[in-house]
Amino acid sequence: MPASTHPRLLILAVLAACGLSACTSTETRRTETPAPEPLPVAVTKPAPALTFQGPVLTGDGTCTAPAPAGAAAIEIGIGECDLVRLKGKPPTDVLVGEGRAGREVQVLYNEPGAKELYFFVNNRLDRIVK
């Protein structure tokens, strides 16, 4: 077939040749702007754990040291061993763990007719459930 009889085929062949020549070109042009430098990222340090003072209860219900005679009544804010000293007997059960706020302790006393549960956070009585 002569190329003059099919001008569309001639145009398609020229376009295909131009397209392929662009793929094999070794010339590169950078017309885009370079990427900006990354911003430094601030690293946050975890908050230090709250500290507590005084003797604390172990998992078996004993104190790590004798409780000072500071607290006179069972009230919010007393220490774990103050509770045991004021109750006059070891607890029925003690759960010791770590929570968001630090050391968390649950102390259970089975009293006649009721159960008392004392919640401590960092060696301070936080709440009482009777």
Mean pLDDT, to the nearest integer, reads 80
Could you tell me the number of beta strands? 4
Q: If strands are numbered along the chain, what order do they take across the biggest sheet?
A: 1-2-3-4
What is the approximate shape?
rod-shaped
Rg, Å, rounded: 39 Å
DSSP helix fraction:
10-25%
Question: Could you give a short account of the major beta sheet?
Answer: 4 strands, antiparallel
Q: Tell me the strand percentage band.
A: 15-25%
Q: What distance lies between the first and last C-alpha atoms, to the nearest angstrom? A: 103 Å
Task: Show unreliable segments.
Answer: none
Number of helices: 2
Order of helices and strands: HHEEEE
Structural class: alpha+beta
Features:
130 residues; single chain; alpha+beta; 4-stranded antiparallel sheet; 2 helices
Textual characterization of the structure:
By secondary structure, this protein is an alpha+beta fold. The chain has a domain at 52-130. The chain is 19% helix and 24% strand. It is built from 2 helices and 4 strands. The radius of gyration is 39 Å and the shape is rod-shaped.
Brief digest:
With 130 residues, the protein is α+β, with helices and mostly antiparallel strands. The chain has helices at residues 7-23, 80-87, and strands at residues 93-99, 102-111, 114-121, 124-129. It has a four-stranded antiparallel β-sheet, with no helix packed on it.
